[in-house]
Amino acid sequence: MRSFLFVPGDSTRKYESAKKTAADALILDLEDSIAPEQKVVARGITREMLDARNPDQKLYIRVNALDTDLTLGDLAAVMPGKPDGIVLPKCAGAADVNKLALYLDAFEAASGIAQGTTRIVTVATETARAVLKILDFENMSPRLWGLMWGAEDLAASLGATRNRTDGRYHSPFILARDLCLIGAAAAGVVAIDTIATDINDLDALKAEAIAARQDGFLAKAVIHPKHVDVVNAAFMPTDEEVAWSERVIAAFANNPSGVAKMDGKMLDKPHLRAAEKILASRRK
């Protein structure tokens, strides 16, 4: 999984366009992109989208936050369509994940879905409280699959007038990004980089995506179809990285002791795990 393309849950036109892209997953949005008076209507449209899916793409649903009293209604509408996962916004730690997991237990049973198969991805940095809770995933449900960070809602939570200058994030938002990455690694789940807000600056998008992958993010959220191919390419390992990884694995194959030597340098298990991760990333 490299790219998660957001699609408004009430726009069949945008959904049909998104289905034609190479996005690994679509996030059908019932939250920020839907006006309050359109929420109920969007649920029905999103349910129809699930029935008309592209089998080559995963489908996730971003529901409304747990404190809105809309989450259960969202889930009741979409779970019969068997989404691959639920994106939970404004998540503040393990308690919120576990609460959603309990809901999913019930909806899976009611819809004839195998227990535990619906993944959870949290948007984990949208409030100041959420950032403080981002390392609180030690006792979370095994449904948790990924952590995504975002800077737009966090700016409002902090009272910031902007989150970046000349394309560079200010320090509170860099902190949130880094904690998301570290929290995901600690929890053993996928770290997902935030969207690029400038739709037309594809060079900046490419640089941002490459930097995210180099830091350890495994995927990136996008908001426009023309961002998908740029992100997918950025999250593929380079030829040099693949060649290095293959040589590392070959070196360990001949040294069962747990250490190896290559180009005059000692290698140990972390190098092997890094090589395996790089080679695995060549597949979606």
Structural description of this entry:
This protein has 284 residues and is an alpha/beta fold. 44% of the residues lie in helices and 17% in strands. The strands form 3 sheets. The protein has an 8-stranded parallel barrel, surrounded by 5 helices. Belongs to the HpcH/HpaI aldolase family. InterPro entries: Aldolase/citrate-lyase_domain, Citrate_lyase_beta/mcl1/mcl2, Pyrv/PenolPyrv_kinase-like_dom, Pyrv_kinase-like_dom_sf.
How many runs of DSSP E, i.e. beta strands? 12
Order of SSEs: EHEHEHEHEHEHEEHEHEHHEEH
> How would you write the strand order of the largest sheet?
1-2-3-4-5-6-9-10
- Distance between the ends: 5 Å
Our estimate of the beta-strand percent is 15-25%
Indicate the overall shape: globular
DSSP helix fraction: 40-55%
What is the structural class?
alpha/beta
Main sheet summary: 8 strands, parallel, barrel
The value of Rg in angstroms is 20 Å
From the structure provided, what is the oligomeric state, counting identical versus distinct chains? Answer: single chain
List the helices and strands and how they pair.
Blueprint: E1 3-8, H1 12-19, E2 25-29, H2 39-51, E3 58-62, H3 71-78, E4 85-88, H4 94-111, E5 119-123, H5 128-132, E6 144-148, H6 152-158, E7 164-165, E8 168-169, H7 171-187, E9 190-193, H8 202-215, E10 219-222, H9 228-234, H10 239-253, E11 260-262, E12 265-267, H11 269-280
Parallel strand pairs: 1-2, 1-10, 2-3, 3-4, 4-5, 5-6, 6-9, 9-10
Antiparallel strand pairs: 7-8, 11-12
Helix pairs in contact: 2-3, 10-11
Organism: Bradyrhizobium quebecense
Cofactor: Mg(2+)
Keywords: Lyase, Magnesium, Metal-binding
